[in-house]
User: Which sequence fits this backbone?
């Protein structure tokens, strides 16, 4: 089989090994996968979606329908709301996790500030995984609830600080 | 790219829908020789995948789950081939062998009717010529049906070999293949593409599972009913009733015709069987409308009755009986794809 033919079939049917092994290790370090065995994360990582973005590309815009979360494999990403930069994220960080739970619009812009490789973990992947591994799926849902609750607490603290500043 | 297709979500959804339709028609033409096994394998995939997922959720490995389900499928196929197919073929042959006697009987009825109209009302009606013409038409149709069914048997034999093989690969590799194909979308359409695909796939799977189970339940119910009612070839007519049930409004009356004809054409006409046929078909309709549709199909596809009727007439006129059978599933699939596209693109439109 010629190399070009082989690459077509390879592109269709074969998983490219290197990225998902690295991605498994990166996801394992996030609070999403606390107490979840590595082999389960590896299984899930195989169904995730690697995407490449150039510097200045919008990963998503405020108001877009969100399908899931993304983790940075390489490069830097800025989360912006209007002209304010809310966060600068790097390798191993993740964002957009609200879309793993809710069929809602994005609440900020995400922009690649340099060439980026991202791994998307989508709501359909999560739903399929929960159906196939309900026990691990329950753990992940619990971890996800922890992450979102912490974000809510943080937002509440920020609101309270802002209010104090205005009153003061 | 999606944004450039047009300004309004409906026009963009329509453009993408036409593109999908074009791809589907081209694929249908390219894969025409293996369309039957491909369609059967896909339907089996949709039906069997929940079983594979359920086994995986019990802790069974991917390979073992697929193998177990596939062995089950092979047992069912082998069982059907060994037990049901010969029975069905016998019944089809018996039906064909009874046709000449049936036409003679109908001819007798019509001649008597013609005589009665001539004697009582003075209307001259050449019943014999009309019926002979109809019979010769029917016989030529019957002959072409026999030839067609011989060709169909070859296709069925090929399908029996190919279907388990394709189903195995779908169960094993479909998700990988799907991920790669959706991965070809550009970055700005990737998430939206996934959401639209997910919406379409979920509704389609629900609909296909619902329709298959609906047909199967009606076929079993009608077969048992016909058997109890003393109707000859109960299994054949039960399966036909299940198939005809896919055609709304027109299907149930059509389902009554073959068993009624055979019962009328029998050497001894059974009144009990004659009465039981409409009762069984109507009971199957009640079961379908009151129990099966609300529980299995629910609101997956809600087509307007006028659209349904027009669709059956147009599909029937263009593609014949097979067209009538696939009219509703084809329109349902189109509606699901189009509404999912409009829903998905509406969200995208509002965000720009």
Assistant:
């Amino acid at each position: 089989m010629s190399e070009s033919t082989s690459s077509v079939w390879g592109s269709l049917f074969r998983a490219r090994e290197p990225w998902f092994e690295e991605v498994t290790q990166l996801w394992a370090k996030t609070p999403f996968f606390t107490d979840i065995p590595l082999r389960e994360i590896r299984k899930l990582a195989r169904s995730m979606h690697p995407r490449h973005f150039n510097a200045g590309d919008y990963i998503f815009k405020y108001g877009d329908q969100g399908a899931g979360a993304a983790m940075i494999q390489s490069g830097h990403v800025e989360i912006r709301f209007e002209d304010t930069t809310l966060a600068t994220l790097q390798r191993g960080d993740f964002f957009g996790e609200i879309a793993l739970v809710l069929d809602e619009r994005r609440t900020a812009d995400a922009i690649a500030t340099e060439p980026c490789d991202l791994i998307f973990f989508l709501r359909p992947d999560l739903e399929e995984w929960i159906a196939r591994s309900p026990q691990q799926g329950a753990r992940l849902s619990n971890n996800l609830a922890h992450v979102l609750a912490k974000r809510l607490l943080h937002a509440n603290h920020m609101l309270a600080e802002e209010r104090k500043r205005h009153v003061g | 790219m999606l944004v450039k297709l047009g300004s309004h979500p409906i026009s963009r959804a329509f453009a993408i829908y036409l593109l999908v339709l074009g791809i589907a028609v081209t694929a249908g033409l390219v894969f025409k020789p293996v369309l039957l096994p491909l369609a059967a394998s896909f339907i089996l995939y949709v039906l069997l995948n929940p079983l594979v997922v359920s086994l995986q959720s019990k802790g069974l490995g991917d390979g073992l789950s697929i193998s177990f389900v596939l062995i089950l499928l092979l047992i069912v196929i082998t069982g059907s081939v060994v037990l049901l197919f010969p029975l069905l073929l016998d019944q089809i042959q018996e039906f064909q062998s009874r046709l000449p006697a049936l036409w003679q009987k109908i001819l007798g009825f019509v001649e008597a009717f013609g005589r009665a109209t001539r004697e009582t009302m003075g209307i001259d009606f050449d019943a014999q010529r009309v019926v002979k013409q109809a019979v010769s038409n029917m016989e030529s149709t019957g002959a072409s049906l026999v030839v067609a069914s011989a060709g169909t048997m070859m296709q069925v034999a090929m399908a029996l070999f190919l279907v388990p093989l394709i189903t195995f690969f779908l169960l094993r590799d479909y998700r990988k293949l799907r991920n790669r194909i959706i991965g070809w979308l550009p970055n700005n359409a990737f998430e939206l593409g996934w959401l639209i695909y997910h919406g379409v796939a979920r509704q389609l799977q629900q609909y296909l599972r619902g329709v298959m189970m609906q047909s199967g339940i009606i076929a079993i119910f009608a077969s048992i009913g016909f058997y109890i009612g003393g109707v000859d070839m109960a299994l054949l007519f039960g399966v036909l009733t299940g198939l005809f049930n896919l055609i709304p409004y027109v299907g149930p009356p059509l389902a009554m015709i073959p068993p009624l004809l055979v019962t009328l054409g029998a050497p001894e006409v059974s009144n009990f069987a004659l009465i039981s046929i409409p009762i069984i078909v109507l009971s199957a309709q009640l079961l379908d409308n009151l129990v099966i549709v609300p529980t299995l199909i629910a609101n997956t596809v809600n087509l307007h009755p006028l659209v349904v009727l027009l669709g059956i007439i147009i599909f029937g006129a263009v593609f014949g009986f097979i067209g009538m059978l696939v009219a509703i599933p084809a329109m349902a699939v189109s509606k699901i794809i189009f509404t999912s596209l409009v829903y998905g693109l509406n969200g995208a439109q509002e965000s720009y």
The two ends of chain B are 13 Å apart (CA to CA). Residues 35-184 of chain B form one domain.
